[in-house]
Design brief:
The chain has about 300 residues and is mainly alpha-helical. The protein is about 65% helix and about 0% strand.
Amino acid sequence: MSLPKTLADDVARNLVMVARLLDEDPETAYGYSRVALRLASRVAAVREAAGFASYAVAKYAEALAEFRAARRMTGSPHLWPVMADCERGLGRPERALAMAGEPEVGKLDKEGQVEMRLVAAGARRDMGQDEAAVVTLQSPELASRTVQPWAARLRYAYADALLAVGREEEAREWFAKAVEADQNGVTDASDRLAELDGVEFTDALDPEAEESDVIGAEDRAEDVRAETGSADLRARPERQRSLADEAEDTPGPSPAEDGDLLDAPDGPREPNATEELDDLTDEPDYRDAASEFSESSERTDGFRETGRE
């Protein structure tokens, strides 16, 4: 469908912002998608972008409606897996499972077929059929040597399904294989593997962990003082008074040091959509923006592991 140049530019800008913000700020991306939808609801790429934006904020009914519209316009089956996952999101895993057996699945490329298998396995788990989920994920693609993102997600999902049925040793093996295939960090397979191996990580920036370390050190110091008969400074009021006197004599920070704090804003400024759009100095054609959005490999991360969480 051809749009007037001014309208096409506006649509393109909104599609670009949806693609940029979908992962990090889905609520804002959703807002841009609604603007694009109002401007060009008869453009298939706009309906698809609106579908993914709705999906990202868990508006599954809206997402399903947009995906169906995009599919009617293009005739392409590539949205079939995420449409099935929307059925899961709406609490209808039986429908998602039925879609996994439809002829449309045979028209999908390798990545799409793996995605459909992941959604089907997720539906099985939704229905409490954990053993069936394991069987659903067993396929020749598990042994593939490719490092495509779908390979890591499939191995991760299989490992997670194995763990759910108590097959921990096999789960560990497949988490390790997922790590090997996960070149882009699309899963947390390395963390899951470390967890199974009993390895614990401490976040150096975590204030709670830091406080715990301090408390532990104080407890150990108390034990040492108790064993050696050393006096606890906290039990000596005269020493406390001396420390308080020293603190009063210690000069505070100079005004120059506090200057930056005085200039700090009261809080984070809300993003200004106009400013963001002004940064787009080029005038992209809406078709280019739609292509950029459709070709992004990150659009369906929400369901590509074991289906919607």
